[in-house]
Amino acid sequence: MSTETADVTTTRSIRNPVLPGFHPDPSILRVGDDYYLATSTFEWYPGVRVHHSRDLVHWRALGGIVTERRLLDLRGCGDSNGIWAPDLTWHDGLFHLVYSDVASFASGYWDAQNFLTTAPAITGPWSDPVRLHSHGFDASLFHDDDGTVWLLAMSADWRPGRNRFGGIEIQQYDPDRRQLVGPTRLIFTGTEVGLTEAPHIYRHDGWYWLVTAEGGTSWEHQVTVARSRELFGPYEVDPAGPLLTSVGRPDLTLQKAGHGSLVRTQHGDWYLAHLVGRPYTPLGNCVLGRETALQKVEWSPGGWPRIPGGIPADEIAAPDLPAHPWPAEPATDHFDAPELASWWSTLRRPATDDWIDLRSRPSHLRVYGGQSPVGKQTPSLVARRVDAPRCALETVVEFDPGNHRHLAGITGYYNTQNWHYLYLTRADDGRTVLELLSCDSGRRTPYPELTVDTGGARRVGLRVRFDGPALHFAYDLGDGWRELPVTLDATILSDEHAAQIVDGEPAAWGFTGALLGLWVQDIGGDGHYADFDHATYHQKG
């Protein structure tokens, strides 16, 4: 909780993005005076990252909801598979979370299993998940005024030659029986823009308002609004065009604007939470990934929701609510807590005590080595999001490798195919050395000329630094920091670089963003671990 008392001064503006870095597909919710944003996490635990605000300006990370394998099993999960587009709602004293676990996107198949879990508080405890249908991803719940509950989702069509985004379907959910009931109905097939997904329905002014994303999640993205007097339609699309898009405006800071959800404040103001990307060059690579922004929504005389210009603004008017800042996140994590702090994520497996140990050695994070950098069952990577173009993570590690199968160090990471890694290992002659290895689209590049003999140093400082499109590593053997004399390409750690299309089919997608991490391998399964004394994160100007 905040150590400060919220004052009565109205916060004047919201600066976008409100959640910088890898925070895509936002679902926004107000419960009383509290606002929550849930975002996609893909192959990372904890699943469904949640942030909390009291004024829509200041946000604090609460960690994630899906923290256990009973809720989600990501063993073997492919890059950018896993949790897509969560939906957070509140009804009858319970939080409801719907999330899609997507197992594939190859050859037009998604294999998207949808789940529902509930809890009396945002912090849990969360119920065992209910298996819903697998008709398509981006599922959401709509709680109608008459007490009925409905599941929405995009309707996927795997058949060659058909529209894979077949429209938006709806089916009733029975909360007492905890299952879907009745027929599915296709209520909206989208506009000519296509790729219709991410449905949300709202009631306002006697209408059902259907908000969807169209155009795909990259440069052609948009938020489409349609309305109907009846739940099942027909739905009329806003004749003025999309509610929000950055298509055709490469001059805008915020690109890829789309995938939105609406929230109404206590005083009746409306805001749209939506996805954006910030390329370093016009329509270039977005190293920070897909981020979350907010826009003010006004209702036109014709009854339609509108955003000024229909484009994403860098700064908007905040609601008339008391300012409620939270204590600043500490720059240094000394690993004094019994669990990982809310800013950390772990790759493909939850932070359980079989490989994460914060108790055996006080004020140290002990990480037991996992699989190789391409392993998808038991990797050992603890990472945090890159949320500024210029930032750095530094640590001090103690590690006694037994052979070349034991590695521990620091990384700039995107996925199993794209990363840069500075690590300690054992050379064939018995020396402990620092080595650098990069992987670009699965092609590894070693730098043997940059190998550093640690001279038997027990504690080694390691640092990875992002400087816009460049990445640098440094080390400290006890006599001060020394930067490795190489500039690495940070832009390979981006959605755009990760995506691969072969013969018109997606061979790989990129939906996450760059991360800074502490990485340990025990490829031989010998029980080796590394101790990290602290981790300090710096944002640069």
UniProtKB/TrEMBL annotation:
Q: Which InterPro entries match?
A: ConA-like_dom_sf (IPR013320), GH43_C2 (IPR041542), Glyco_hydro_43 (IPR006710), Glyco_hydro_beta-prop_sf (IPR023296), Glycosyl_Hydrlase_43 (IPR051795)
Tell me the ranges covered by the Beta-xylosidase C-terminal Concanavalin A-like domain, including all copies: 332-537
Report keywords, A-Z. Glycosidase, Hydrolase
| Alphabetical list of Pfam families matching this protein | GH43_C2, Glyco_hydro_43
What organism is this sequence from? Micromonospora gifhornensis
What name does this protein carry? Xylan 1,4-beta-xylosidase
Family per record: Belongs to the glycosyl hydrolase 43 family.
PANTHER family linked to this entry: BETA-XYLOSIDASE, BETA-XYLOSIDASE-RELATED
